[in-house]
Amino acid sequence: MDQTKRQPRRMGWRFAFLALLLAVAISGLIRSLWLDVYYIPSESMEPLLQGGDRILVSRTDFQTEPVRRGDVVVFDGRGSFAPLNSGKGPLADAAAAAAQWMGLVGSDTTYVKRVIGVPGDTVVCCDTDGKITVNGAPLDEPYLFPGDVASRQAFTAEVPEGRLWLLGDHRSLSADSRSLLGAPGGGMVPLDRVIGRPVQIIWPLDRFAAVARPQQAGPTTEDGQ
User: Fold this and answer.
1) Are residues 114 and 168 in contact, defined by beta-carbon separation less than 8 angstroms?
2) Cα Dmax for the chain
3) N or C: which end of the chain has fewer CB within 10 A?
4) How high is the pLDDT of residue 8?
C-alpha cells in the first residue's frame, strides 16, 4: 500500500522536473534564434537607454534589412571592444554567464552602441559647427545626451568593408570606437559580430516602452547605405 501511495508523488516531481527542462530548452531556442534579453550596465546610451534597463533584443531584424547609420545595435565585442578571454576562471565565468543569461547583470563582452559609420564611410570629428561629418556632410544627431557635444576627441576613421564605426549617445561617458583608434582594428566592429537590435525596454516597468528604429542617419553613400 505504501508503494502505491508514493508512486504519484514521485511521478509528480518527475513531471515537474521534465516540464522545467522543456521550458528552459524552449526559452534557450527562442533566445538563440529570435529574441534575447540584455542588461544595460552603464549610462553610455542615455537618454535612450539607462543604466539598469533590461532590453528585449531582436536577432532577426537585420536579416531582413541590413544595418544602417543611426541604428542601435547589440554586439559581441570580443576581438574589437573587449579582450578575447576574461581570465576569471571556469567557475567564475560559468556563474557570470548564468547571471547574464537571466538578464541580472551585464556582460563584459557584449555592448550596445549606435552605428555612425557603415562600410565605405569616412567619419570625421568635427566640422566648424562641432558636428561629426560622414563623407563630408554634417551628421544631425538628435539622440545625443542633452548638453553633450558630438565629441571632444578629434578623429578620422575610414570604415572598411564588413565593419562598423560605433559611438554611444552619452558621448562624455561612452567608451566606444574613439577609445580604440590606436588599437588593432581601430575600433571597428565586424558586421558579423552584431547580435541584434533593441526593440523593447522591459524593465523597470515605469520605463516599459518600444525602442523604435530611427530613420537612416547622415548622407547616402553610392551603394545605398
Assistant:
1) yes
2) 90
3) N
4) 58
Measured CA to CA, the distance from residue 77 to residue 188 in angstroms comes to: 10
Overall fold of domain 35-210: Umud Fragment, subunit A (2.10.109)
Half-sphere exposure of 220 (CA within 13 A, CB side): 5
Phi/psi for 4 (5° steps) reads -70, -30
- Residues 34, 60 contacting (CB under 8 angstroms): yes
What is d(CA 77, CA 74) in angstroms, rounded to the nearest whole number?
9
Per-residue pLDDT tens digits for 67-112: 999 999 999 998 888 753 444 444 434 344 444 444 444 467 899 9
Q: How many beta carbons lie within 10 A of that of residue 128, not counting itself?
A: 6
Residue 62 has pLDDT above 80, yes or no: yes
DSSP 8-state assignment for residue 140: P
Which of the residues are catalytic? 44, 113
Amino acid at 35: L
> Length of the chain, please?
225
What is the average pLDDT across 139-160? Answer: 96
